[in-house]
Automatic annotation (TrEMBL):
SUPFAM superfamilies: Homeodomain-like, Tetracyclin repressor-like, C-terminal domain. Residues 39-58 bind DNA. The keyword Cell division does not apply. Transmembrane segments: none annotated. Residues 16-76 form the HTH tetR-type domain. This is AcrR family transcriptional regulator. The lineage of its organism: Bacteria, Bacillati, Actinomycetota, Actinomycetes, Propionibacteriales.
Length: 192
């Protein structure tokens, strides 16, 4: 059912131990505090490196934001594909995606890191991280297409998925992912 090659997350760039500390620190701060509210001084100090080291590894704060989102995208996609395994029943796959997203959301209370980043950086159309954000959303759409075998249905289910994330985070709706999964399965059944 799933073409693992077509959905394989792109590899992430290797980094030095100092670069890994910077990425881990920046990722935590960007997600918890916000990209625009976190400066390179704080990241460097918290990671125990110099600003020079940060700039040598990532080129700029924008480069660091891009690397953070690229790593997060890789981690999410790898995790989700692992949870899906070789699911060959579309209904099981749909439930698995929504259940995995619900578990992920419980551990990430500020919601979707990609939506959060978009809200902060989309006013800068030249920001290199925008491509990573768009590609994450396109990847989810491709995943839904593979799981459901129908472009229009995949688009509708993707909307349910994105809506569940928003309702879970903003309204604290604990059943948002379950409700979205049920609606997705109803849509899929109506199209059969």
């Amino acid at each position: 059912m799933i073409d693992a090659v077509a959905l394989a997350p792109p590899p992430v760039a290797d980094s030095t131990p100092a670069g890994e500390r910077v990425l881990a620190t920046a990722g935590d701060l960007f997600y918890r505090v916000g990209i625009n509210r976190v400066g390179v001084d704080l990241i460097a100090d918290t990671a125990g490196v110099t600003k020079r080291t940060l700039y040598q590894r990532f080129g700029s704060k924008d480069g660091l934001v891009t690397a953070y989102l690229d790593r997060r995208r890789h981690r999410w996609q790898t995790h989700l594909l692992s949870e899906l395994g070789t699911a060959d029943d579309p209904a099981v796959a749909v439930r698995t995606v929504f259940a995995t997203a619900a578990a992920w959301a419980r551990d990430n209370p500020r919601g979707c890191a990609f939506v959060n980043a978009w809200a902060e950086i989309s006013a800068s159309p030249e920001h290199q991280a925008l491509a990573v954000i768009r590609e994450e959303k396109r990847w989810m759409r491709r995943l839904w297409r593979q799981l459901l075998g129908d472009d229009r249905l995949a688009e509708s289910v993707h909307l349910l998925y994105e809506g569940a994330q928003t309702l879970y985070t903003i309204l604290g709706a604990p059943g948002a992912f379950d409700d979205a999964a049920r609606a997705a399965l109803e849509l899929a059944g109506a199209r059969s």
